[in-house]
Design brief:
alpha/beta, 2 domains, binds guanosine-5'-diphosphate, EC 6.3.4.4, binds 6-O-phosphoryl inosine monophosphate, purine biosynthesis, disordered N terminus, binds magnesium ion, Adenylosuccinate Synthetase, Chain A, domain 3, four-stranded mixed beta sheet, ligase, Adenylosuccin_syn_GTP-bd, magnesium
């Protein structure tokens, strides 16, 4: 894996609407890194790693945890649900994965509380047909409180009087909205306080000043891998607003969310699926609402790793990915799930959109308002061969090679690696 990692701290980002296969690639790359950091998002993420048919789904813990002797850091930019975290730790330990001194949690990370999940649910119900289709993990409300300066952070847990006072005040305020606006039941701050005091003790061994930890890692020339969650088109600024998540998904967010200088990110690696998927609502010009869309869902196992929801499927959208490449400054890419297209006689790539009587080859910032946007396709022949057992670049069928070359030409970046199945070993190095 030297080619992908040489001498560089790398930021790995999803270039579509999430679920590009980031977890699998992080797990592979971790072999050549010392530290893996999650810098944004929370348990809305579901990153799958398959090792010899054993499946692991990570939500909050970096996917690097499955390798021995690696540091895994949950940075200050993550919305941390301690209950979910402890559950995840329990699951991993059951599978004999070590989670002890190798996990570090930022004391600056904002905590997700039950009222965040409640507000996520209520806000979605209120929106009716306009709902975002969130994962209901309380992510939006947690980040809202962070920015509104009503948040409570991990460090606050270790000052019980201060925590109690703050929590009481916040819950009392939330209850006014819950009861008066939503006609919902009030929450008990005392119950939440007791539960979170217990969580505090359980997560205490992992909590530290990750700013200092990361600075020391840089000083000691440790190799750092930044594990992006979600996808660039769900980014709060550059995604398909308002059908987005509430964090800075893109590479710029990695410096802030990990508490490290942007100069320490030497390379940006984009992960893109050979077709497109999206969970939840929002624009998706190349969506296939037909038997082929259903086929891709089945063949690709496109069901949410966090919520189990069926993912919407469609052709590769090069307009959207080009936009993601631009906002991230992507150096090179990994193309995943090539095997899912093995049985297609013809493969389409969306290279532009038409809206009214105009054609666009740039991603429109107001895509959500352009629901009638139609895709313009370029067609390439399929390879009609099983690629899942392919490990050598010389075995790539010529039509598959043509598909990859065409994408590289349109996108202007090289594809360094192909993924041809869920398992850790199912990859082909292209450089
Ligand atoms: P992430 O959120 O980006 O980590 O992606 P998810 O784990 O949510 O979704 C990717 C799904 O595709 C998981 O079920 C993976 O096991 C699976 N997967 C990853 N790479 C490949 C691949 O190359 N081929 C196939 N068939 N499945 C893959
Ligand atoms: P990974 O890291 C795919 C989507 C939700 C919804 C929108 C907002 O596994 O790629 P949120 O709960 O974040 O407020 O939901 O974002 N979403 C994801 N879609 N993969 C993810 O993560 C996602 N995390 C959030 O479906 O449309
Ligand atoms: Mg996922």
């Amino acid at each position: 894996m030297e080619n992908l990692t040489t001498g560089s701290n790398t930021c790995l980002v999803g270039l579509q609407w999430g679920d590009e296969g980031k977890g699998k690639i992080v797990d592979i790359l971790t072999e050549s890194f010392d530290v893996v950091v999650r810098y944004q998002g929370g348990s809305n993420a579901g990153h799958t790693v398959v090792i010899n048919n054993e499946k692991f789904v990570l939500h909050l813990i970096p996917s690097g945890i499955l390798r021995k002797n690696k540091w895994c850091v949950i940075g200050s930019g993550v919305a941390l649900d301690p209950g979910q975290l402890l559950e995840e730790i329990g699951e991993l330990r059951k599978k004999n994965i070590e989670v002890s001194g190798n996990l570090r949690i930022s004391e600056l990370a904002h905590l997700v509380f039950p009222y965040h999940k409640k507000f996520d649910e209520l806000s979605e119900s209120e929106k009716g047909d306009e709902k975002i289709g969130t994962t209901r993990r309380g992510i939006g409300p947690c980040y809202t409180d962070k920015m509104a300066r009503n948040g409570i952070r991990v460090a606050d847990l270790y000052h019980p009087d201060h925590f109690r006072q703050r929590l009481k005040k916040v819950v009392e305020e939330k209850n006014k909205i819950l009861v008066r606006l939503y006609d919902a039941e009030a929450l008990s701050w005392k119950d939440i306080y007791e539960t979170y005091c217990e969580y505090a003790e359980q997560i205490r061994p992992f909590v530290c000043n990750t700013v200092v930890f990361m600075a020391d890692a840089v000083k000691a020339k440790k190799k750092i891998l930044f594990e992006g969650a979600q996808g660039s088109l769900l980014d709060v600024d550059f995604g398909t607003y308002p059908f987005i998540t509430s964090s800075s998904v893109t590479a710029g967010g990695a410096a802030v969310g990990a508490g490290i200088s942007p100069r320490q990110i030497h390379k940006v690696l984009g992960i893109m699926k050979s077709y497109t998927t999206r969970v939840g609502s929002g624009p998706f010009p190349s969506e296939l609402n037909d038997a082929l869309g259903e086929y891709l869902r089945k063949k690709g196992g496109e069901y949410g790793a966090t919520t189990g929801r069926p993912r919407r499927c469609g052709w590769f959208d090069a307009v959207a990915v080009k936009h993601a490449i631009m906002v991230n400054g992507v150096d090179s890419a990994v193309l995943t799930k090539l095997d899912v297209l093995d049985e297609q006689r013809t493969i389409k790539i969306c290279v532009g959109y038409t809206f009214g009587d105009k054609a666009y080859d740039l991603f429109p910032p107001d895509l959500a308002a352009r629901s009638e946007c139609q895709p313009i396709y370029k067609e390439v022949p399929g390879w009609l061969r099983d690629t899942s057992k392919m490990r050598d670049r010389n075995d790539i069928p010529s039509q598959a090679k043509n598909y990859i070359d065409t994408l590289e030409k349109i996108l202007g970046i090289p594809v360094e690696m192909l993924s041809v199945g869920p398992d850790r070993g199912q990859v082909v190095n292209l450089v």
